[in-house]
Specification:
single chain, about 425 residues, alpha+beta, 2 domains, four-stranded antiparallel beta sheet, three-stranded antiparallel beta sheet, 14 helices, about 15% strand, globular, disordered C terminus
Length: about 425
């Protein structure tokens, strides 16, 4: 337990890796030559590309004798450390052995909890069955007979050919010339939403909680695809659409930005309300999402570079949504509803969709109430907070607008109640407010 208590981000002293060190030295020497070659000179070529593949250009030798001498000395430096230079391992020997046994134990799987940073050790069969249960939901996923990656690459090439003036040569290279790897699916256990886990924590009152296969444990679906066919297109479109988020009235960047929007004074009958949309990413219908993005594009067209046409952006986004394929336990799957949490454009996409729905809500709210509800309704991704009057009618409007989604709400005249039940370490506690349906 001592080695696990260090957390998944703890890095044990690695063995000497001469291959990686050699590559790093070559890259460092290349950067030295580039700095000497270009100096502080700015590029004179007008390049409007917002993404590009990394250059492999390396200046030739002979321009700076001192630099050549230094690089030659560095390149010939012995990479294998001498016995007296070896770094002491930062883990005691017994913990090294324990870590090795954990790595070799194929009967368990270790994941970080969805919230709070706790480590969750699960039986591998239990984990597989729970994820499989999630993937068997035909509303969100469909099993494939084979991989769709080649077809997806062709669709991206067709998109670029259809809109030749929307991308530069470097952007085309970035979007099409890279090594593709299949996305993998995994789930983060939502122990903060499990009643069985909560009960076990309260009963055992210990830093290490043991519970046998909780039936009500859910998992946050993550599609890890840093080199999937659409990951670069997703990054490209995200860079273009992200500036639109600042025009969503409820949008806040982070927790600190939220504090800046809290009113200095509130009326005596004001209430603080919070609500959390359940599984927002997977519950956005593709048509609604595309309609929402189209709405913001047409409303603030001047924000987007004119070379990027609306049709190019919407068709590119549709390719991302329609081709979210991944691999789990020997099978290929397609996500048929919503967007993957792992894709770059997902947070921007979700923000614009929620903003689109809120715009409809404001039209109804403002016809009956003052503008306070709109001014004080703030949201970070799927989590919303609002300061308003003690009146249930605005919340009926919220239900009408968000009828597609399940969400938990809490309201109070003074505070938001919290209860803590996940102990991350002696100095940090994770809090989760009471859920009121």
């Amino acid at each position: 337990m001592k080695v696990l208590n260090k957390g998944l981000k703890y890095t044990p002293t690695p063995p000497a890796d001469t291959d990686t060190l050699s590559v790093d030295i070559k890259e460092f020497c290349r950067k030295l030559r580039l700095k000497n070659h270009f100096g502080d000179k700015e590029s004179k070529t007008a390049d409007e590309s917002i993404v590009r593949n990394k250059s492999t250009f390396t200046p030739e030798k002979g321009k700076n004798k001192d630099l050549d001498l230094y690089i030659n000395h560095l390149s010939n430096f012995p990479l294998i450390p001498k016995p007296q230079d070896k770094v002491k391992n930062n883990l005691p020997f017994k913990q090294q052995q324990a870590l090795y046994r954990l790595q070799k134990d194929e009967s368990i799987i270790i994941k970080e909890a969805d919230k709070g940073g706790a480590l969750v050790i699960m039986d591998r069969i239990y984990y597989r069955d729970k994820i499989q249960e999630q993937l068997n939901d035909k509303q969100y996923y469909r099993e494939l007979n084979d991989n769709m990656e080649k077809k997806t690459k062709r669709n991206i090439n067709k998109l670029i050919s259809k809109f030749p003036h929307c991308t530069t040569e470097k952007e085309v290279d970035y979007l099409t010339k890279f090594e593709v790897k299949t996305s993998n699916f995994y789930g983060l256990p939502k122990i903060h939403k499990s009643k069985e886990v909560e009960t076990a924590v309260q009963q055992q009152n210990c830093a290490y909680i043991e519970i046998n296969s909780p039936k009500d444990l859910k998992f946050r679906p993550i599609v890890a695809g840093p080199q999937c066919p659409t990951h670069r297109l997703s990054h490209f479109i995200d860079l273009i659409l992200k500036p639109l988020c600042q025009y969503v009235p409820s949008f806040i960047r982070d927790n600190f930005d939220f504090l800046n929007h809290l009113p200095a004074e509130v009326k005596e009958d004001a209430i603080l309300v919070s609500f959390d949309v359940t599984s927002l990413y997977t519950n956005i219908p593709h048509k609604l999402g595309l309609d929402a993005v189209k709405f913001w594009l047409e409303s603030y067209r001047h924000i987007i570079d004119q070379r990027f046409s609306n049709n190019f952006l919407l068709e590119g986004l549709k390719i991302i949504l329609d081709n979210n394929t991944f691999f789990f336990d020997g099978k290929y799957y397609l996500q048929i509803s919503g967007t993957a949490m792992g894709t770059k454009v997902a947070p921007t996409y979700a923000t614009l969709v929620m903003g689109f729905l809120e715009d409809k809500m404001y039209q109804q709210v403002e016809s009956e109430f003052d503008t306070a509800f709109k001014v004080y309704n703030k949201r970070h991704n799927r989590r919303c907070s609002s300061v308003g009057l003690e009146d249930k009618r605005p919340f009926r409007v919220i239900k009408q607008v968000y009828y597609r989604y399940q969400y938990s709400t809490f309201k109070s005249e003074s505070t938001i109640k919290f209860h803590k039940f996940i102990k991350k370490n002696p100095r940090h506690l994770y809090d989760k407010h009471d859920r009121i349906k």
